[in-house]
Design goal:
- Pfam families: PPR (PF01535).
- The protein has twelve helices and no strands.
- Helix 10 runs antiparallel to helix 11 (164-177).
- The protein is an all-alpha fold.
Length: 199
């Protein structure tokens, strides 16, 4: 298996040596590469620089490969933010099988998300149209040991506007947990708004 430094030499170093850059690699990635070179002696510095590199690679198809490489490195420790970024990228690209694999890895390493991260993940999967996965993450959020917060529920409710049946279910859960709070429902159509503001 190739290490992250070997990968860096094969993918990023050629761009710094004046050769034609690989398609899709931007200037942000190259600057992160320079940071990695500076921090090479310090393992913690390499770990931080690698996290920055992964953040820039999130939009590229190389991220799943690098995800596997990073998890095999000696300095690797399970990180909620790495998994969050992976799940966001997989949701945007509608990769269901890979999402299930990352979720299994996350569970096997004992990584716990906070309520805000759960809300963001459910919303991203709702926006991508992957409602089944979004509801699986929602059920996991409900069974989380962390106390529930109202803001993640509001984020999820906003993402479920195109799905009124599911939105009603989540709304009922929200009102059971927070009985004194109000949920604003969107108008049924834009014509309701137009009628209200007509002179």
């Amino acid at each position: 298996m190739r290490s992250l430094l070997e990968l860096k030499r094969e993918v990023i170093t050629p761009t710094l040596q004046g050769r034609r850059p690989q398609a899709g690699l931007g200037r942000g990635i190259l600057s992160r590469h320079q940071e990695m070179q500076i921090a090479h002696q310090d393992r913690q510095g390499v770990a931080e620089s690698t996290k920055l590199l992964l953040k820039n690679l999130r939009r590229h198809k190389m991220l799943p490969f690098i995800y596997g490489v990073v998890r095999r490195e000696i300095w690797y420790r399970p990180d909620m933010y790495l998994y969050r970024d992976m799940l966001h990228m997989l949701a945007r690209n509608k990769k269901v099988d890979e999402t299930r694999q990352v979720w299994a890895d996350l569970k096997s390493e004992g990584v716990l998300f906070d309520q805000h991260t759960y809300g963001d993940i459910v919303r991203v999967f709702c926006d991508a149209g992957l409602i089944d996965l979004a509801m699986e993450f929602y059920e996991d959020m409900r069974s989380s040991p962390e106390p529930p917060l109202s803001l993640p529920f509001r984020v999820i409710l906003k993402g479920l506007i195109p799905y009124p049946e599911l939105r009603e279910k989540i709304k009922q859960d929200f009102l059971e947990l927070f009985p004194d709070m109000i949920v604003y429902d969107p108008p049924d159509s834009l014509s309701d708004i137009d009628d209200e503001f007509r002179f």
